[in-house]
Design goal:
Blueprint (H helix, E strand, L loop, with lengths): L1 E9 L9 E2 L9 E4 L17 E4 L15 E8 L5 E8 L3 E5 L5 E5 L7 E7 L5 E11 L8 E13 L7 E10 L4 E8 L2 E8 L18 E8 L1
Antiparallel strand pairs: 1-5, 1-13, 2-3, 3-4, 4-7, 5-6, 7-8, 9-10, 10-11, 11-12, 12-15, 13-14
């Protein structure tokens, strides 16, 4: 029996007061976030056109494993006969740089995911509890010196055998997320997916706020039962 858990960071289709709708061109109808003015203080960003922006993930919260995201950390946990972390994967859907007025695509790149990891796997003596820590940090690959998006936390899986019939599997997450963008976490067992938490960016927050904090600061938690 295998359990899959994952956490995503993604930029929603609409962030009030921040995202812009592209009116023309290749990416007409999509939304983007503008290149922050503060980023142009870095000489390597000075040559970018005035209307440079970056596509959002064009979505709201989604339980689909392949939903577009800035960052995803996913783990497969084998629950029997001894709980183990059988696989981990850290992926990104890539960043698309566009002109937010003409809709022209300017560049594309993938964030470096080497700072994302599952670690500290622990199994109880009774083999009924497995816990694993996750941490992630990655930045926009197309903006020089861009601040990192971060998250951290712990997944705890508790197996509750039943005296008769099927037992229960309880999956819990507790951790912290960054001040931008949106974050979500899910668990999937036996083809059924359940949401552990969803969290939009706080009102008024943008990518600029990432540079004002050091690491994840917003606590999140959730639990589901299969």
């Amino acid at each position: 029996m295998a359990l899959t858990v994952w956490i995503n960071a993604f930029i929603p289709l609409t962030v009030p007061g921040y995202t812009v709708l592209i009116p023309a061109g290749q990416h007409r109808g999509k939304t983007a976030v503008p290149l922050p003015g503060v980023a142009r203080m870095n000489p390597l960003n000075l040559l970018k056109p005035p209307d440079t922006g970056y596509l959002t993930d064009q979505r709201t919260f989604s339980p689909m494993q392949n939903a577009s995201c800035r960052m995803q950390s996913l783990a497969d946990l084998s629950l029997a006969p001894t709980p183990t972390l059988s696989r981990q994967a850290h992926t990104t859907s890539g960043t698309t740089e566009v002109n937010v007025v003409t809709g022209a695509q300017l560049n594309f790149g993938n964030a470096v995911m080497t700072k994302c990891v599952f670690s500290n796997v622990s199994v109880s003596a009774t083999k009924t509890i497995i816990s694993v820590d996750v941490s992630g940090a990655a930045s926009d690959p197309l903006v020089s010196a861009a601040a990192k998006i971060t998250y951290e936390g712990r997944f705890i899986v508790t197996l509750q055998p039943a005296s008769s019939g099927a037992g229960r599997t309880i999956v819990a997450f507790s951790g912290k997320i960054d001040v931008f963008p949106a974050f979500e976490a899910y668990a999937q067992l036996g083809g059924v997916t359940k949401m552990l938490f969803t969290s939009p960016p706080p009102p008024g927050n943008t990518v600029v706020d990432l540079a004002k904090h050091f690491g994840p600061t917003r606590p999140v938690a959730g639990s589901v039962t299969f």
